[in-house]
Amino acid sequence: MDAVETAFANAITVGLVAGGSGDFTVGETVTGGSSNVTAEVKSWDSATRTLIVINRSGTFTIPETLTGGTSSASWTTATYNTLDNKNTAISVDTNYEFETADDDIIDFSESNPFGTVGSTSDTTI
């Protein structure tokens, strides 16, 4: 069951700022210094400073220091996108693509195309 969870869990990529210390260990828990959010390390690439995490307890802030629970690695967050999920076993997630493409389908800049919620005078509903 753990292999299935690791392969298909909602994995988020966290970009980190240069100058951190240590290497995160796969499976360890990392904790955000200001948000106190925890997550499990799915993968860590020190060359690109890319941390992929699963099982988050919330949303990390930018910037904040992430510290490894067993490795004591310490790095500062630079980028974080909850829509661009990365499943390295099989890439089936398309949240980011839908979120960016939908802006070309429905234009909310002028008004709500579905009418005005709670209006008794709007007859476009």
Counting DSSP E segments of at least 2 residues, the number of strands comes to 6
Q: Compute the number of structural domains.
A: 1
In terms of per-residue confidence, which ranges show pLDDT below 50 for 5 or more consecutive residues?
none
Q: Give the N-to-C terminal Cα separation.
A: 48 Å
Shape: elongated
Query: Helix segment count?
Result: 2
What about the largest sheet? 6 strands, antiparallel, barrel
Instruction: State which percent range the strand residues make up.
Output: 25-35%
Q: In sequence order, what are the helices and strands, one letter per element?
A: HEEEEEEH
The Cα radius of gyration reads 19 Å
Helix content: 10-25%
Question: What do you see in this structure?
Answer:
With 125 residues, this protein is mainly beta. It has one domain. The chain has helices at 2-8, 95-101, and strands spanning 12-16, 29-32, 38-45, 50-54, 65-68, 74-85. Strands 1-4-3-2-5-6 form a 6-stranded antiparallel beta barrel. The radius of gyration is 19 Å and the shape is elongated. The termini are far apart.
